[in-house]
Design brief:
mainly beta, seven-stranded antiparallel sheet, three-stranded mixed sheet, 1 helix
Length: about 190
């Protein structure tokens, strides 16, 4: 008898469908959290972004990024208020900080999403050249400043000669002889 009851329950489940658990995605959700860079100094601007999607069509009234106790409002930078990317940037104080994104949709649940951790160190003291950190001028073979330290470079170009005018005499201080002549330190042929 017991087997008959079990068989009947099994047939009934197959005919009317067994109870099932279906988990649907929440109507409002955040995804794709980004922080760039994730390490820097107090002078580093951190760029933050996240994607908001509402399958129920609930537009986001606003999205914020929370870095420690700092609240950073984000702006819609691509897409729509119901399916778009929200971005912003900020300076962050010294420390290691958890990053969390928060959505404020017009209706429905208010999702939050953790992002990558951000680590900030104090900016080093300025150096005599006015720069900070270890970015000293790169030495060059001539001992001068690197190209990125130069503000302006002028190059003298010879003035145009009228057609048929004689070539000017070489500078007596020049170590290079004029073509076809002798002079300078190299001597003649």
């Amino acid at each position: 008898m017991r087997g008959a009851a079990l068989f009947t329950a099994l047939v009934a489940a197959l005919l009317w469908g067994a109870p099932s658990v279906v988990v649907a995605a929440p109507p409002n959700r955040l995804s794709e959290p980004v922080a760039f860079p994730t390490d820097g100094t107090t002078l580093t601007r951190f760029h933050l972004s996240v994607r908001y999607v509402s399958s129920a069509g609930n537009p986001a009234a606003g999205i914020t990024a929370q870095v420690g106790s700092l609240q950073v409002p984000l702006q819609l930078t691509s897409g729509t208020a119901t399916d778009g990317t929200w971005s912003g940037s900020t300076l962050v104080p010294v420390g290691s900080w958890a990053l969390t994104f928060h959505a404020a949709p017009e209706k429905g649940p208010r999702p939050s999403l953790p992002g990558p951790a951000i680590t900030v160190v104090d900016d080093p003291a300025p150096t005599p050249n006015g720069r900070t950190g270890s970015r000293e001028p790169a030495p060059t073979s001539s001992g001068g400043a690197a190209a990125d330290d130069l503000v302006h470079l002028s190059v003298a170009t010879p003035a145009a000669r009228p057609k048929g005018a004689a070539e000017p005499a070489p500078d007596s201080r020049s170590p290079v002889a004029a073509p076809g002549g002798s002079g300078g330190e190299g001597g003649g042929a």
